[in-house]
Write a structure and sequence with these properties.
single chain, 277 residues, alpha/beta, 11 helices, globular, binds ligand BJW, binds zinc ion
Length: 277
């Protein structure tokens, strides 16, 4: 490990350990080591697929069968993936901080760690349950800004259901329909041009505005409004720590940039144990 990286890790650990309230924003990079493809960059989904054809309401209106086929494929791929050391380190961090402060999970006014994710892969949720064991996983459950790959919702009335185990994508007529209004069901994710769930956004930004530190992990910081979350912390006098092997538009604003993979950096940054040098 270079002296520079060692110094950045040490500064990041101090900053996070001192912060009474931390908001964490994660993106696709935290799941890369679990085998889930990112969106941009080498091997990213948007290198092989066009977002305009698959991840907009217009694309779904034009060709719902194609969109469902892509999401059914992604569901089956992600189902085979497991949380990695980065997800588990974050889950333990949130649970330990909640236990230390007696805070109840998910309440941004009291919880000392609020986990916010752009990911739809469910790996933070699985890590929370793994790390909590028989205790309550709530403090480690994320606010999921872009929804979930494992829920469906009606394209007309919004009725939400757990994802069907299998979706027949052989024809438009075979696609799942809403039991309430008969319209096509769709994956409960947020596509480009769609509003994020207002309550989730309000809780995430509420936490960011009061956080002493914002830890940003594995996101290109290009997609809004998620990319504004660390800015809200900065504008209210807090600091940003970034973990990403590549520089992003946020890097110059961060107090510390740890240019490492999440699975290597987070266990060291968050565990309170000695540095690996
Ligand atoms: C590692 C690593 C390792 C690799 N360890 N790191 C302001 C300015 C400009 C545009 C806009 C704006 N406000 C809104 C917009 C439009 C648009 C937008 O942001 N466009 C930009 C791209 C220009 N935003 C929207 O449309 C949003 N909606 C909205 O604003 O609505 C307004 C509205 C209001 C009222 C009524 C109606 C509308 C919605 C955005 C939805 C994004 N959806 C997706 C798909 C989700 C579903 C699915 O998965 O299929 O969300 S797109 C995709 O990008 C996905 C991600 O969550 C999101 C962010 O990507 P992320 O996580 O950053 O991944 P990558 O691949 O970009 O980066 C990975 C990073 O990891 C890299 O940096 C690597 O280096 C790093 N990495 N290995 C750590 N091991
Ligand atoms: Zn409906």
């Amino acid at each position: 490990m270079s002296r520079d990286l060692q110094g950045e890790i040490s500064r990041a650990r101090d900053l996070l350990a001192r912060a009474k309230s931390v908001v964490v924003l994660t993106g696709a990079g935290i799941s890369a080591e679990s085998g889930v493809p990112t969106f941009r960059g080498e091997g990213g989904l948007w290198k092989s697929f066009r977002a305009d054809d698959l991840a907009t309401p217009q694309a779904f209106a034009r060709d719902p069968r194609l969109v469902w086929e892509w999401y059914a494929w992604r569901r089956s791929e992600v189902s085979r993936c497991l949380p990695n050391a980065g997800h588990l380190a974050l889950a333990s961090f949130a649970l330990e901080r909640a236990a230390a402060t007696g805070a109840s999970g998910g309440d941004a006014s009291t919880a000392s760690v609020t986990l916010v994710t752009q990911n739809v892969d469910g790996l933070h949720e699985r890590a929370a349950r793994d790390a909590a064991g028989t205790s309550d996983p709530a403090p480690a459950l994320p606010l999921a800004l872009h929804g979930s790959l494992f829920r469906d919702r009606c394209s007309r009335c919004g009725r939400a259901t757990p994802a069907l185990a299998t979706v027949d994508t052989s024809s438009v007529d075979a696609l799942p329909r809403c039991q309430r209004c008969g319209a096509l069901m769709r994956p409960a994710v947020v596509w480009f041009g769609e509003a994020l769930e207002a309550g989730v956004v309000a809780r995430a930004f509420g936490a960011a505005r009061t956080a002493e530190a914002c830890l940003v992990v594995g996101t290109s910081s290009l997609v809004y409004p998620a990319a504004s979350l660390p800015i809200a912390t900065l504008e209210h006098g807090g600091s940003v720590v970034e973990v990403n092997p590549e520089a992003t538009p946020l890097s110059d604003l961060a107090a510390v940039s740890v240019m490492q993979k999440a699975g290597d950096a987070l266990p060291v940054l968050l565990s309170g144990k000695g540095l690996r040098v």
